[in-house]
Structures are given as C-alpha cells and as structure tokens.
Amino acid sequence: MRDEALGVAILGAAHTGHAWAYARALTQSPHARVVGLHDPEPEHGRWIHEDFGIPLADDADALLGDPSVGAVLVCSANAEHRAHVELAASHGRHVLCEKPVATSIEDAEAMVAACKATGVQLHVAFPSRFLPLVRRARAAVGEGRLGQVIGLVGGNRGRPPLPPSYPDWITDPVAAGGGALIDHSVHVTDVMRHVSGLEVTEVSAEAGSLLWDREVDDAAVVLLRFGNGAVGSIDPSWSVPADHPWDHDFYLRVVGSEGSLDITDGAAAVRLVSNREGAPRGLREVRVGEDPDLAMIEAFVASVRAGEVQEPCASGEDGVRALEVALAGYRSAAAGSPVQVTAASRAPTGAPAPVRDGTSD
Amino acid sequence: MSDELTVGLLGAGLIAGVHARAYRGCPGVRLVAVADPVPGKAERIAEEHGARVVPDLDGLLAAGVDVVDVCTPPTAHAHAAVTALAAGRHVICEKPLTRTLDEARTVVEAAETAAGLLMVGHVSRFEPDHRAARDLAVAGEVGDVRMVTHTTASALPGWSEGGWAADPAASGGPLLDQAVHSFDYARWVIDSPAVRVHCMAADSGAGPTTYALTTVRYQNGAIAHVECSWAHPPARGFKLGAEIVGTQGRLAWSYDHMMGGVLYPREGDAEWWDVLGEHGFVLELRTFFGAIRAGGSSPVPAQEAMESLRTALAALESARTGSTVDLTTWKPR
Lengths: 361, 333
What we know:
The complex is a heterodimer.
Chain A: E1 6-11, H1 16-28, E2 32-38, H2 42-52, H3 60-65, E3 71-74, H4 81-90, E4 94-98, H5 105-118, E5 122-125, H6 132-142, E6 149-155, H7 173-176, H8 180-196, E7 200-208, E8 219-226, E9 231-235, E10 251-256, E11 259-264, E12 269-273, E13 283-287, H9 292-306, E14 314-315, H10 316-335, E15 339-340
Parallel strand pairs in A: 1-2, 1-3, 3-4, 4-5, 6-9
Antiparallel strand pairs in A: 5-14, 6-10, 7-8, 7-15, 8-9, 10-11, 12-13
Chain B: E1 5-10, H1 14-23, E2 29-35, H2 41-49, E3 52-53, H3 57-62, E4 67-70, H4 77-86, E5 90-93, H5 101-113, E6 118-120, H6 128-138, E7 145-153, H7 168-171, H8 173-177, H9 179-190, E8 194-204, E9 207-218, E10 223-229, E11 239-246, E12 249-254, E13 259-263, E14 271-274, H10 279-294, H11 302-321, E15 325-326
Parallel strand pairs in B: 1-2, 1-4, 2-3, 4-5, 5-6, 7-10
Antiparallel strand pairs in B: 7-11, 8-9, 8-15, 9-10, 11-12, 13-14
C-alpha cells in the first residue's frame, strides 16, 4: 500500500449529501481510490455511482474483505454507525465515520473500543476543522493572542433536510437521534474544543420543532460552560429558508482576556444572480476557496498511511465529546434545567467491547 | 397646556446629551432646564441648548416643565419618576426602568393613576433597523416568528459618572444595561410572555458577569438567544447583530452592514459613518410627544418595561445560581 492509492470502501450512503461530497473528494484525491459502495437502499448511492463511476457492492462483508480495501467511509444513518464501524473494525479496516458519531454514548464508546481492540483508527467527519479560518483561529488561540478564553459563540445553521432532497431518516428521532441539535451542534462543539482546547462541563438548551412541523427539533440554542469557567452558545438550527442566498453558515466568535476573534466561512463567497432557465431564484452566495471536505479526506488518508491520527483530524473520542454535549442538550431541554457533563458523569468506558461480526443490529 | 412642550433633563450624562440633541428634531418641544449633582455637567448641556441649570428634581418641577426626562443611574429612576408623576408631569424614564422589581412596581402603580404619561427609553423599538424588522415580522413577511437572536458586545462603557456602570450593585452589569434592550425587543417581536430563562455568564476584566449568554423561552414556544458583553476589546467598538426566524422566512442585520461610509484622514483613525445615527432617539421622543398631544397611551408603558426588567433580573439570578428560572412562578429575593 505504500506507493499506491489507499483503497476505500463506502459503507452506507444514507447521509446522501455528505456521502456524495466525501465520495467526490475521495475521487479527486490522488492518494485514494474508492473500491466500492455498499448500501441496501439503491437510491442512497445512486448519484455517487452515476457521477463518479463508483461500483455498487451487494455484500458488505465481501466488500470489506477485499484485500485492496484499507479503509472504510461510514455514511449510514446515525443509528447504524455502530454496526458499520464495528464491522469495519472486525475486518481490520481504518474508519472515517460521518457525524454525529452515534446516537447514544453507549454506542459511541463501543465504537471507540472496537477500533482500539483491533488496532484501527477511528476518525469522525468534522470537516469544519479543516476550514482555513478555523485553522488560523486555533493557532491564534493556541499562541495566547486572546489570553484566557472567556466566551465562545458559534453557529451552524442550514436548510431543513426535508424530502425529496434528503431521505426521511434524517428527521426520524430514532434513526437520527434527534433533529437540528444533534445534526449541527456537534460541528460547532467540536470546533470550539479544537480551537480553545477546553472541555464542556455543563449544558443548558432550548429546543423545539418550531419551524417545519417535523417530529424532531428544528430550532435550538445550546448554552455551554467550559472547564475554565468560560461560557459558550451554539445555534444549530435548521433555520435557513428556501431561496436564501446561502444554504448553511459556520461562524465562531471568541472573546478572551487579551482580545477577541470573529470568523465566518461565508466570507469566502462570490455573489451570483442568474436568470438562466432553471437556475435558483434571487441572490446566491457561491463559496470559493479551499474545499474542507477534500482537506479532511487527504488528512484521513495521510493518517492511515502514517499509522497514527494526524492533526487536525477528529478522533472517535472527539466524536464522543461532541455527542455528549448534544445529548446533554436534549436532556436539558426536556427537563428545563442544566445538565452536568463531567468526567465523573460519563459512562465508564470499561474494557473494550468484544468485536462483533457486525451483521446484527 | 400650550402647544409647546417644555422638557427638563434630570441627569446630564451621555444619554441626556443624546436626548438633548434629539429634542431639536421634535417640533414644538424645548429643553428648558437641566439638573445634575456633578458640578459643571448640567452647564455643558444647558449652554449648548439654551436651557438653564437648576439644582435638582425640585428645581425642574419648580421651573414648570411639562416633561421630566429621567437620565440618572437606574438606582435613582423610581424616586424621580414617581415624584414627577405625582407632580402631574409627563415622564421619560431611561432603561432599565429601575434597578429592582420592587422599585419597578412603584413606578408602574404611579403611572397607572397619574395624569401624565410615562414612557420608558427602550429605544430599540424606534431604531430604524429594529423597527423595520419588527414591522416586516408583524406584516407576516417571515411567517410566525419562532426565534430571535440578539447580540450586543462592547468594552466596558466609559461614559458612566464615577464608573457606576462598572458597579454591579448600581448598574446590574450588561444584562441590565444592554441585554434589557434585547429582552424588550425580543418580547415585542415574539408577542408572547417569557416563561423560562437560563443564563450562563463569565467574569472578565470589566467585572463580574460582564459576558453573558441567555436563552429565553416564551409561552408560544418561541426561543430568544441573547448575547451581551462588556468583555470585548475597545478597538472592536459596539457591535450589534440580530436575527428573526419565522416559519416562512428569515430577517438578519448587523451593525457591520449599517456602516454606509468611511472617511480615512491622511493621519489618524478612520471615521465610520453609521446609517442609523440618532434617528431612533428622535423617533422615540417624537412618538412620545405625539402621544402626549393626542392624549394617547404610552408608546412604551412601564408595565412592559417591568416585564423586560424582570427577564433581565431573572437572567442575573440564573447566572448567579446556575439554575434555570421559571418565570411563571419566579419571585426575586
């Protein structure tokens, strides 16, 4: 494998948008080659197959057992991540798993343990870490240019993931584990941890199905307390309507004792109005610059080749930390009171779970 | 009452100066007297606007002003407002209405029975950006309003006499001084009572609880998210950002977008021209004087300002205790 491209299998493409984008990045990377895609639902992988010529595989075990496969991209429904990651681990394949890492801490920790037990890397897909502005923010905070961090405010808002553009499971409370709060807050929590080096100790949240009449929350605000006493908030809402100039945003504001920092990835865009037949109406902001998905894929491939998780990749543990905050947010919103997220309150990790054959669940 | 309305300013600090300029944009209104306990302060405003200096509130009342404009620190609001109302005058009372809810109740009660009108200085309701956004929301442009985000961030204000703003006992910090505008505006736009508040706050070089993040839940299910800060570096200036999200659309603006011009001198700092200017204060005061002349009701009644104050006090309480405050039952200590 040293000199040739890393063979990657795609296991589950239910997260159709991200699966397509990551498949494109894998296709673009000179260091990776997609061996095949397995998803029992043909519609999930249809565009990946048509756009990138990636073969569809009927049998997951056969695909993962292919000797040319060195790593696996898991983009199935959130509740299926555990089974798929454990299956990849049982085949000794390194894993890049779509976020949120799972829908329960138990599942997430089992995934971390399964990968540890078979000696494979578990990465979680947090492409926001690879935004050039986030990298600069991490460096600035790391160099102490803001002094002691006092507050962090971030947001990742997007369009509601509704049919026909999105599969139904994304707004299913069991398959997705929740709505906007779990879907988007994990990106922001992860970037806050990544940039500040701080851990969340307490969460208070408001959340509800306020906009699109789905079974899951589509609007939420999550308040955070960090280990050093700093506070934070996250807006993860699906609050961007159709025909809006941008379809999602990502911003972070940090204030510290010696300075403050504001970043927004929407700055990297050109403005377009098109009257072309069939074009979307009105003003659109078209993103320009580096593709964070490609940067993430390249870093994943480089980590696999190097035999260790490289900066700034997010590990399985990072995925667990972000999930803890989201799940604490749901508990807080339901109870109407804050929820502690401390090391002591975390479920004991215990011994690595036995490797399962992955055909169950 | 003649056509002309005469005004007396109680307090001659920053906001008093802004009001004094705004009266000039109000036809038939004349500033006639200014009082401030600090020597020299009242003189500065009085000279600029052709008013005279009187020693105190009694002096303003004796001068026969129709309207007393209370621009003192909040701890002095209740006494001044109640006294002026009892003397049969109209009252403009700066925000927050008072420092405590007990004080606020005395003002609300006085205003209910007084002959004069009392308006509280929740100027956000009159700022061109905020007002336009609210008018659009009320017109249904974004459907049902479900979420309001409002952020105001600056360094520790340098305008308070003797630094009273930095004394939490006097000012209540940015939650009472700044975020009370946000709570008032969100409540006004969402049009439903607040039922639940949680606030997480941090200390900064500007003092305790000078960086605060608050969520408010409303009876109709809507959510407000309020950030207020005195913890930012002075060079960043005063930044405001706001969003209103509804079932059929989204409204957003920020002060960064409201800078319509910039002048760069060959030497020295750039001069930014914000398009809002002091239009909000002029409209606020004009609206109040119009209500007086029309015999109408207060544009911002004490009762509504008390509700906004209560939300801000609940946020302070939540920040202090770490608990969520249930506003349907909450009684401040």
